[in-house]
Design goal:
By secondary structure, this protein is an all-alpha fold. It is built from 10 helices and 2 strands. The chain has a single domain, classed as Four Helix Bundle (Hemerythrin (Met), subunit A).
């Protein structure tokens, strides 16, 4: 039996669940918080296929390319649709109706940037404990959290659900995705108390504490702290 079938099947399952999430987001038939569960499954499967491939020693170029193709749906197309839906729900009195109908498509610059990042990632073979640019799964989690916060009725939702914020957010995220900024990778090669691992442990503990107290509101804050911590670590 060709053991590579096992991780590749997990990758196909990631793609299948991602397609379901896309359809549900397009139909807008479920709350975004419910669809978020499907994407969390995709993230787990995305980690599992690589783990199984390394465990069975069946890593291949085919499996890597297949993984990137699945990720462009689960972590590229999905966040683009979320921003598209959010821009459609907002309104602006300062622009005409024709432009207003076109602006939501700006959300898909995140999809294009994700495709660029995934293509670059599949051609590079760096394993120094860092990502180059914002990882697409992390970006997808952050966009889900922003959408969930935006759907509630509070001060933050009013700030989020407007053209200027969403367009600026899409541009910043796209730049982070295609950037060469070194961000800490949480794939542990060992569990020693090396300098990089200490930062990883500290960030994980901090993220857990924030989630316990702030729940979904903690995710955008945790993402900012993650990026800033990576920049400071690289600086020193």
């Amino acid at each position: 039996m060709n053991l590579s079938v096992i991780p590749n099947s997990i990758t196909f399952l990631n793609l299948f669940v991602g397609i379901i999430a896309v359809i549900l987001l397009i139909e807008n038939s479920l709350d975004v918080s419910d669809i978020f569960i499907l994407t969390l499954i995709c993230i787990f499967l995305d980690y599992l296929d690589g783990f199984i491939a390394r465990l069975l020693k069946v890593q291949s170029k085919f499996g890597s390319n297949l993984d990137s193709l699945a990720d462009i749906i689960s972590f590229g197309f999905v966040p683009g649709i979320i921003i598209y839906n959010m821009l459609k729900e907002t309104h602006s009195d300062s622009i005409g109706s024709i432009l207003s109908s076109l602006i939501p498509f700006l959300g898909f610059i995140i999809t294009l940037s994700s495709a660029f990042r995934l293509a670059r990632f599949s051609t590079e073979n760096k394993n120094d404990g860092f990502f180059r640019g914002l990882p697409t799964p992390a970006n997808t989690i952050m966009i889900y959290s922003i959408a969930i916060i935006g759907s509630s009725d509070n001060f933050f939702s009013k700030m989020i659900m407007n053209y200027n914020f969403l367009i600026l957010l899409s541009i910043i995220i796209s730049l982070l995705l295609v950037s060469r900024i070194k961000l800490i990778n949480f794939k542990f090669l060992d569990f020693s108390l090396s300098r990089l691992n200490k930062i990883r442990y500290l960030l994980i503990i901090l993220f857990i504490v924030l989630l316990l107290f702030l729940k979904i509101n903690a995710i955008p804050l945790a993402m900012i702290l993650y990026i800033l911590s990576s920049l400071v670590y690289n600086r020193i």
